[in-house]
């Protein structure tokens, strides 16, 4: 049975404050200026896959590794940066109502303390060997970050971390899954990720996907996993058979556009009945292939009962998504985010109204 989001309310998370998104649609497009909070909303939704898992939250920290501003941040600093940027209290709080009627509140409560540690304890935390000198063991004040995660008022996770630790420690947590969520970052296609097993289990959609890929290479016949020498390597190698080549070639020799399209389409099939998050979905896809690719993604999401959340900076990509499948326009909403001093304001438009504003009034939706 599918489980989607009806309402999302974020009291505090990163730069988001008092955000409320009601009556969410099967297809939701998030727009707004840079730093308006689009990706932060996707992060909150992604956490629903396992809200008590510290490693899940740590993955949100790692997503910032591509940002020059955050380059060099320790895991300790990155975790603290998940909390509201302007708040005095280290508290993340959000409520979600699902389409099956379930309602949940998730809270992350942080606290910074100082603790006196010996030189031996410090070296153990940092991973260095310890040799006590003649003057005895020194003691140092060290910052410690304590975090608890609560689900509906009940503590499900407790974690402590010192600012000198080289690697995060994950205390035992309750494995609670509130929703099935798949997140695709703007650059994940460069890793060669494809959810091909899910695709191969659905021959009809596999054939449709091959037809879309022929927009990028008309000679493509098939794509499969190369199992040769698999015990000597990490991860899968995907091979594409094309009429233009005498043998199947690995996916990584193809351009970013085709890799991105293949990743997005396979993610749709993998997420059947769940929630799919596509951050800057248009990245790397050439404008000539957008119509066909986006149309397939939207129509297949509806067919497989996948709730879709998209973010974009591109007015052209937004226009193509709104118009690529007219029959689905009543299933699409556009949410534009605005920030002021005290809250994140959301303007909501149906697809039809958004198209009217763009075409007849000449206004941008971003």
Low-pLDDT residue spans: 65-71
* Overall residue-averaged pLDDT value: 88
Please bin the fraction of helical residues.
25-40%
> CATH topology of the largest domain, what is it called?
Rossmann fold
Please provide the ordered H/E string of secondary-structure elements.
EEEHHHEEHEEEHHEEEHEHEHEEH
What is the number of domains? 2
CATH architecture of the largest domain: 3-Layer(aba) Sandwich
- Please count the helical segments: 10
Q: Strand order of the main beta sheet, please?
A: 2-1-4-5-6-7
What's the shape? globular
Q: DSSP strand (E) fraction? A: 25-35%
End-to-end gap: 34 Å
Return the CATH class of the largest domain.
Answer: Alpha Beta
**SSE-based structural type:** alpha/beta
Rg measurement, Å:
23 Å
What's the main sheet like? 6 strands, antiparallel
How many strand segments? Answer: 15
Describe the structure.
This protein is α/β, with parallel strands linked by helices and 366 residues long. A 6-stranded antiparallel β-sheet has the order 2-1-4-5-6-7. It has a 6-stranded mixed β-sheet with strand order 8-12-13-3-14-15, with helices on both faces. The protein is built from 10 helices and 15 strands. The chain folds into 2 domains: 51-91 and 103-178, no CATH class; 182-218 and 255-361, Rossmann fold, CATH 3.40.50. It has helices spanning 38-47, 54-62, 75-80, 119-126, 196-200, 203-213, 256-270, 287-303, 315-323, 351-361; strands at residues 5-13, 16-21, 27-32, 91-98, 103-118, 139-151, 154-162, 181-184, 220-226, 237-242, 249-250, 275-278, 307-311, 332-339, 344-350. It starts with a strand and ends in a 5-residue tail after the last helix.
